[in-house]
Amino acid sequence: MSRRRGRGAGPPPSRAVDYHNLRNPFPPMAVFPEDRIAAMHDTALRTLEELGMRVLLREAVEIFRRAGARVVEDMVFIGRDMVAAAIATAPTSITGRAGRRAKDVTLELGSLVFQPGAGAPHATDLKRGRRPGSARDYREYTTLAHHFDVFQMMSPSVEPQDVPPHLRHYFTTEAQLTLTDKFPFIFARGTPQVTECFEMMRDFRGVSDAEFAAHPHTYTIINTNSPRTLDVPMAQGLIDFAKAGQLSIVTPFTLMGAMAPITVAGAITLSHAEALAAITLTQLTRPGAPVCYGTFTSNVDMKSGAPAFGTPGHFQASLAAGQLARHIGLPWRSAAGSASNLNDVQAANENQMGLWGCLMAGATVVIHSAGWLEGGLSVSYEKIVTDCEVLNMVAELCAGAQAGEDEIGYDSALSAVDPSGHFFAAPQTMDRYNTEFYEPIVHDYANFGTWTERGARDASARATDVWQAILDADVRPAVDHARLGALHDYIARRTEAGGAPPES
Amino acid sequence: MSRRRGRGAGPPPSRAVDYHNLRNPFPPMAVFPEDRIAAMHDTALRTLEELGMRVLLREAVEIFRRAGARVVEDMVFIGRDMVAAAIATAPTSITGRAGRRAKDVTLELGSLVFQPGAGAPHATDLKRGRRPGSARDYREYTTLAHHFDVFQMMSPSVEPQDVPPHLRHYFTTEAQLTLTDKFPFIFARGTPQVTECFEMMRDFRGVSDAEFAAHPHTYTIINTNSPRTLDVPMAQGLIDFAKAGQLSIVTPFTLMGAMAPITVAGAITLSHAEALAAITLTQLTRPGAPVCYGTFTSNVDMKSGAPAFGTPGHFQASLAAGQLARHIGLPWRSAAGSASNLNDVQAANENQMGLWGCLMAGATVVIHSAGWLEGGLSVSYEKIVTDCEVLNMVAELCAGAQAGEDEIGYDSALSAVDPSGHFFAAPQTMDRYNTEFYEPIVHDYANFGTWTERGARDASARATDVWQAILDADVRPAVDHARLGALHDYIARRTEAGGAPPES
Fold first, then answer.
1. Which terminal Cβ of chain A has fewer Cβ within 10 Å, N or C?
2. What DSSP designation does A482 have?
3. What is the sign of the dihedral through the CA atoms of A402, A403, A409 and A414?
4. For the region Disordered, what residue ranges are annotated (chains A, B) (predicted)?
C-alpha cells in the first residue's frame, strides 16, 4: 500500500503503531527436549502426589479433601487426575475487562502483555532520591504506567507505606480507577479487603453482579511460599478470585539454590508443581475460573546468597517454564527485572536479558518489564522510561515489516539513485520519511559535539525530563462523576467504619 | 552425570564453559515470508544486471569483463549466471588459522563468533577521557580483546593515529601477532601494505607459502560505498585476499534513508546486490576463495540524518540479511553497536537490542558486539567490559542446560527439603554450588546498604577496575623469539626503506 500524499494537502502523516494488542512474533525457544519437559511435568505430579503441598488455610484444605485428596493435618496430597481435570477446565484465553473496551487485555498463548515493575517497598528517582514508597509515589507511578501504551495492564506497583494498611486498598483502588483505565490489580490480603475492592470496581465500572462475575474486571498475583507451601492470604485469594470470576496469576517465586533446587530443571519442576496445585485449587473452587500459569525463577549468587536477575539461569528458567506452559496449554507469565542498585548499565543489561528470555519463551505476560531495581526492593522512575524505550522497540518488532514491491522499491528507490548518490530525495523516501522509523522517547542520536554542547546528559538524566513531563501533563481518563462521587462516599463510609485490616 | 565429590579431596571444581567454539542455539527468526526473500534476491540480481555496479579499480573491471560482464566505462553489469556461479564456488565453511589451533575460528551457518567494536578513530575511558586513538590505545585494546575468550577473532579495533600511515600496518600486525594469538585482521589499504602484512604473518606463524595459501591466516573487511560503488582499495582488497587465499568479509554499510532506501526491504536488497557483486569478484579472481557474506544496515534519524543503532529497523535488517544468507547458503556477518556518546543505559540497551537481532538472525560473526559508541566514532574500555558480560551470558546460553534425573533431582533435592525449608544444604546443591551458575565479571548483586557502604559505584565505574586489572596483568601468548626477532628485523628494514603508504 502506497502512502504517497499530496504536498501541502494537510499535515504530514504520523507514525501509528498499535502497542496494545501485541502478538509475540519471536520463535519460541526450547531449553530442554520435549521428553525431558514431559519428565519434569511427571515429576511435578509425583511431587504433588507423594510429597504433597502444605496448605495453611483450612478452607482450602477442605476443598482439596472434598475433591478426594489425601490430607494429613496441613499436608495435602494431590492426585494427578485432579490436576489433569483442573488443566482441562482452566480457560486457555482470558479477556480482562478494562475501563474502556479498547483497553481490554487478552491473555492467551501467543499474546504479549507488559507490566511495569511491581511490588516494590521503595521508590527512587534522580530528583528526590530513594525513599519508602508513599501515596504520592503510588499515584505518580500509576500515571507513568497509564502514559505508556506498551503497558497493557496495571501492576502491583510501589507500596504506599504512608497509607495505613487497613485503608490502603481503598487508596490503591481509587487511584487505579481514576488515574488510568487499564486493567487493574488487587492484592490478595484477605477476604474483607478483596470483597471491598470487587465492590468498588464493579460499581465504578457500572456493571451488574452477573456481568462482573462473567468477566474478570481485575486480577491478583499469587505467590506460593516455596518450597511447597500455600499460605493463608494466598490460598484465600485463589478461592475468593475464583468464586468471583476474577483472575489469579499464579507465580511461584523460586530462587535456584535457595528456596528452590539449584538446577533450572529442578527449580522449574518445583515451580510447576506449586503452580499446578494453585491452579487446581481455583478449578476445584469454580471450574472454568480465570487463572494464569506463571513462574518467576532466577538464581542466587552462591557466594552471598543474594538474588540475581537477567542471568543465564533466569533466561533458561523462563524457556523451561514456557515449554511447560505450552505442554499444559495455558497462558502464562514470566518476569524480567534487575538486581542493580541504580539505573545503570547493569540494570539495563539485566532487564533486557531477562526480557529476551521471556520473549523467546513465549510468555503471555511479562511482569517487571520496566523500572525494577534491587531485585524488586525499589522501582526507578528513570528506569521505567529507559526500559520502556526497549519495550516500545519490541512492540515495533511485533508490528513486523513488509517486503512488497513498494518496499523493495526497484522503481521508487533502487533505480532512482545513481552510484555513490543518496536516497534522501528518492520518491520512496519522500513517501515515508515521516512514518517509516520508530521515534525514540529518550535515546539521543546527536553527535558527540552537539551532545556535549547540550550538557553531556546521559540517558538517565534525560529520562528524568521525560517522567517529569508526563507527571506535569497529568493526563487522566474521563470518569463518570456520579460514579466517582459514589466511590468516594463508599470509601468514606468504610473508612469511618474502621476499614479492613489485611489478613495473613 | 553426577559431579559428587569427596569433601577435603582437593580443591573444589570450578565452572568451565567453552566460550570459543559457540554454536547459535537461538531459533532463526524470519521478518519476511520466503517468497519475498526470493523476490528481494531476484531484485538484487536485476539491480546488478540492469543498473550495474560502479567499480573504480580498472583491474577489477577487467576481471568482470573477461568473465563476460557488460562494461560501460566504470559501470559493470553483472549477469545472474555469473553471480550464481560465484555463490556455487564460495565456501560454505571457512576455518581461520590462529596462532594456536585451539584458537582457530570456523565460520559457517550455525557457528557464532563475536568481535569487539571496530574501526573507531577515537578511544575513551573514564580515567583518561575521550581522545584520538593512539598506539597505546591500539595495544591496550588488543590486550583487552585477547583477554576475553568470547571474542574469538580480532577486529579492526581503534585507529592508532599517532603512527604514520605508511608504517601503521607494521605496528598493528606486530601488536596482533605478539599480544594475542587470535585470528588477526588486516585493513585493505592497497596491495603494498597487504602484501607486507601477509609476509609478516606467514613468517611469524612459521608456515610455508603453500600452507599460507591453503588456509586463511588473516582477514579483512570490505565495505562497499553504497549505493552500488566499489572503490579502489576495497576492490583491490577483494582481489589481493582472494589471490592469497585469505578471507574477505564483505559488508555493505547501508543506512536506511541516507545511502540506502528508507525501507528494510529496499536497503537489504541493495546491500545484498552489493555483497553479491563483491563475492562474485572474489570468485572470479580465484574460485573457492574464502569469502563471508555480510551486512550492516540500520536507519538514520530522519530529523537530523544521524545514524541510529539498536533500533527496530536495525533488528529487522539483520533478520532479513540472515534470511538472504540462508537463501544463498553462505556464512555471514552482522553487527550490533550503539549511537550513544557514553557508556550509559542507552548504550547498553542499543547494543543488546542490536545483538539480539544478530542472534535471532543467525549471524555467524557479530561485529561491534562490545565497546562501540557514537556509531563507531569511539570505542569505550568500560563498554567492552560491560558488553562482554552480556556476551558471556549468551555464550553460557549456547552451552545449554540439562534436565536428566540428576538435574530434576526428585531424590537429591525435591524430596530432601520440607515445605518452607531451603535447599542450601540439599545434596544436589552441595554437589553443584561451585559450578552451577555463571559468575559475573562486573555485575554486582550486593544489596543497597552494602553497595552504598562500598562507595555506590555504578557498573561503568566497576568496569574501570576490570579493564585496569586486565592491562596490569598484561597476559600475552608465548612467542617464538627467533621469529619475533625476524619480525622486528623485517619491520626495521621496511621502515628504513620508506614503508608502504596506503592507497585509495
1. N
2. H
3. positive
4. 1-20
CB–CB contact B448 A130 (8 Å)? yes
Which pLDDT score is estimated for A9?
53
Residue A429, domain member (yes or no): no
What's the maximum distance between 2 C-alpha atoms anywhere in chain A?
A: 83
Instruction: Please report the pLDDT score of residue A144 as a whole number.
Output: 98
CA dist., res. B93 & res. B106, Å (int)? 7
Answer yes or no: do A261 and B53 touch at CB < 8 A: no
CB A93 within 8 A of CB A78: no
The position carrying cell 579431596 is B9
Q: Is B454 inside a domain boundary?
A: no
Within-domain flag for B434? no
What is the predicted pLDDT for the residue at B2? 39
**A160 three-class SS:** coil
**Contacting A residues, span 138-197, partner chain B, CB-CB under 8 Å:** none
Nearest to A397 among B312, B423, B442 (CB): B312
* B123-173 tens-digit pLDDT: 999 999 999 999 999 999 999 999 999 999 999 999 999 999 999 999 999
Q: Choose among B268, B290, B266: nearest CA to B279.
A: B290
Domain extent, residue A86, equals 51-399
Between helix A312-328 and helix A264-285 the angle, nearest 10°, is 40
**Minimal Cβ distance to A423: which of B40, B259, B409:** B259
CA distance B95 to A381: 49
pTM equals 0.97
Task: Using alpha carbons, select from A333, A95, A96 the residue that is nearest to residue A201.
Answer: A96
- Which residue among A52, A390, A445 sits closest to B353, beta carbon to beta carbon? A390
Q: Cβ(B347)–Cβ(A345) under 8 Å?
A: yes
Q: Block means of pLDDT (10 residues each) for chain A, length 504 residues?
A: 44 86 98 98 98 98 98 98 98 98 98 97 98 98 98 97 98 98 97 98 98 98 95 97 98 94 98 98 98 95 92 98 98 97 98 98 98 97 98 98 98 97 96 95 97 98 98 97 98 98 90
- Looking at the structure of chain B, the number of domains it has is 1
What per-residue confidence (pLDDT) applies to B1? Answer: 34
Exposure b/e, A209-233, CB count within 10 A at least 16 = b: eeebbebbbbbbbbbbbbbbbbbbb
Per-residue pLDDT, averaged over B113-129, amounts to 97
Cβ distance B233 to B188 under 8 Å?
yes
Mean per-residue pLDDT, B344-373:
98
Q: Give the DSSP per-residue string, A171-210.
A: HHHHHHHHH--SBPB-----HHHHHHHHHHHHHHHT--HH
Say which CATH number the domain at A100 has.
Answer: 3.20.20.480
For cell 527449580, name the residue: A267
Residue B5 has pLDDT above 50, yes or no: no
In this prediction, residue B303 carries a pLDDT of: 86
How crowded is the C-beta side of B310, counted as CA atoms within 13 Å? 32
CB B268 within 8 A of CB B320: yes
Q: Who among A25, A262, A414 is closest to B270 (CB)?
A: A414
Hunting for cell 462482573 — which residue is that? Answer: A212
- Is the Cβ pair A302, B437 closer than 8 Å? yes
- Helix, coil or strand: residue A98: coil
Strand partners, B131: B123
The sheet carrying A75-77 orders its strands as A70-72, A75-77, A53-55, A229-230
Whether B467 is in a domain gets the answer no
SS3 A54: strand
User: How many CA atoms are closer than 13 Å to the CA of A354, on its beta-carbon side?
Assistant: 35
Task: Give pLDDT tens digits for B368-386.
Answer: 999 999 999 999 999 999 9
**Quick check: A339 and B408 CB within 8 A?**
no
Counting every residue written for chain A, the total comes to 504
